[in-house]
Design brief:
single chain, alpha/beta, Oxidized Rhodanese, domain 1, two-stranded antiparallel sheet, 9 strands, 26% helix, globular, Rhodanese-like domain-containing protein, Rhodanese-like_dom, Rhodanese-like_dom_sf
């Protein structure tokens, strides 16, 4: 199965709210979850997992095993929507998940808070800027 491609944050939310098997996987670091916030999956029945793609020590060697612990099964046709801070790490995570048989796997364009803007700050685009549900930890 090929990598399923990119979704805008709204398209990702629409998929998650209409397909009860779809899982949101936030691949940012624990520090990002705690300081920036996380998508609020309460409207999704809690269908969200938090699996670091990169840890403070480097690439997460347990990434695929962590996906399995989150309830995913290789070969199962279950949409997986990957989200990071700006949409870069989540592309790599979605591609790795696809290669391991998870998916279809999607990347959320612009991530949770987008690229750095002209003002040197993030938050002008992405999940939060699009007004999608989120919360602080």
């Amino acid at each position: 199965m090929p990598y399923a491609g990119d979704l805008t944050p709204q398209q990702a939310w629409d998929l998650l709210t209409t397909d009860e098997s779809a899982l949101l996987v936030d691949v940012r670091t624990d520090g990002e979850w705690r300081t920036i916030g996380v998508p609020d999956a309460s409207e999704l029945g809690g269908r969200a997992a938090f699996v670091e793609w990169v840890t403070p020590a480097g690439p997460n060697p347990d990434f695929l095993a962590d996906l399995a612990r989150a309830g995913l099964t290789p070969g199962e046709e279950r949409p997986v929507v990957f989200l990071c801070r700006s949409g870069v790490r989540s592309v790599a995570a979605a591609q790795a998940a696809t290669a391991a048989g998870f998916g279809p796997s999607y990347n959320v364009l612009q991530g949770f808070e987008g690229d750095v803007g002209l003002d040197g700050q993030r938050g002008h685009s992405g999940w939060r800027a699009d007004g999608l549900p989120w919360r602080e930890l």
